[in-house]
Amino acid sequence: MANALRKMANYLGLMDDPDLGSHPADNAQTSRALEAKSKPRPAALAVAPMAPPAAVQLDLPVLDRIVTLHPRFYNEARTIGEQYREGNPVIINLTDMDEAERKRLVDFASGLVFGHHGTIERVTSKVFLLSPANIRVSNEDKAAAAEASFFNQS
Question: Global pTM?
Answer without folding.
Answer: 0.51
